[in-house]
């Protein structure tokens, strides 16, 4: 099987502007994409926007706008954020506007129907408009949605249902066997715990009137609109031409990829680990290989949410502090399991500590000393030494960490490499050799240091691509001279 990685973010609702939580998922997924490309893998990176939600219609009506124009404007804001964050996506799909999407949704609906997994029934239940999901009120405190701190709504209607219950055992085996890998293990166990109990069939359509006709009609039943999650999850294959005239990308990137990876937040784990694989199995299609699940960034100890009034504008942070500082904080401070509380003071402290005083200081002292020792001559290849071994170990640790979306551990490996290089400089004291006129000895000491900084720049690229580019420019290509320039540390340092 070709070594292809098909990598996706979840697609956010566009009932408001993007916030810091969206930036977290963009950046984490971009780190995986850039790292895989750097290791020689073929990568296709998809993101986009979920536009057929009833909550989008409600927000548009509240703003006095038609849904199409409202979601188009907000979708543009998400794309602008992805661009401002320097996200290296290959494709951006809008579910209400991209011509690839509707044929795929209709095709997968028809295949599930042909499998006997869709039926009409009357339903009464408690619904959270924020999650676009029905809940058992006994599972929620005070009958309120914990995600949105909002009361559930009583809904009674006749809808189409999907026989999710039919796939419980198959899904449990798929996940328990590791054929569908869910990371971290705590999230895997959460899904298996859910599948160990009764699994109910789920409603997968809404009456046309309740969503004001916004969405994709059920094939052969235009009075029903396909439920937003059934619609939205299909984006992962509609972007590849599934159900269209040319499904070559689908066959290449979904059927024949070495890995199909979704990066999602913990709040939508069940949709991706249970409902989405079940729909694919019903339709006779392959499930994803990997689900990498992240926790939340919080503000004042609470998940960021439009409805909670604590959203932080990531674009404003980029304007004030630069994209490197924000990307680094999101990579450096969010644990693999658990949450990190955001403040601007913490962003500045982390950037100054690791990027200015760490990376910037090391790069500047290295190129300054190497420029004196080599006087414009190419820096010769470094012999095997302790720093070369440290570089190899750093690469291996980053590979292992990112395989399980442990972005913070990957950045810790880079910080330790900087620390090791600085200890090497203090121990070898190349400036003493230069003052003594022993240029050959100084060069022998500095060549491994230059090679280490070159590795550091390359390994930084997935996390802080703009800074990595500046490091590469200063240290130069292998076999070339270094370029000291304006002190990099001072260029990076932030002010509150």
Structure notes:
This protein has 496 residues and is an alpha/beta fold. It is built from 19 helices and 18 strands. The chain folds into two domains: 4-316, HUPs (Rossmann fold, 3-Layer(aba) Sandwich), CATH 3.40.50.620; 344-492, Isoleucyl-tRNA Synthetase, Domain 1. It has helices spanning 20-38, 54-62, 67-84, 101-114, 168-176, 185-195, 228-233, 235-238, 248-255, 269-282, 314-321, 323-333, 344-374, 386-402, 407-428, 430-435, 439-460, 465-475, 488-492, and strands at residues 4-9, 42-49, 91-94, 118-128, 133-135, 144-145, 150-151, 153-162, 181-183, 202-203, 205-207, 217-218, 221-226, 259-265, 290-294, 297-299, 302-303, 340-341. A six-stranded parallel beta sheet has the order 3-2-1-14-15-9, with helices on both faces. The protein is elongated and about 90 Å long.
In short:
With 496 residues, the chain is α/β, with parallel strands linked by helices. Helix content is 49%, strand content 16%. Strands 3-2-1-14-15-9 form a 6-stranded parallel beta sheet, sandwiched between helices. A 4-stranded antiparallel beta sheet has the order 5-4-8-10, covered by helices on one side. The protein has a 3-stranded antiparallel beta sheet with strand order 11-13-12.
Brief descriptors of the model:
Rossmann fold, 6-stranded parallel β-sheet, Isoleucyl-tRNA Synthetase, Domain 1, 496 residues, 18 strands, 19 helices, 4-stranded antiparallel β-sheet, alpha/beta, 2 domains
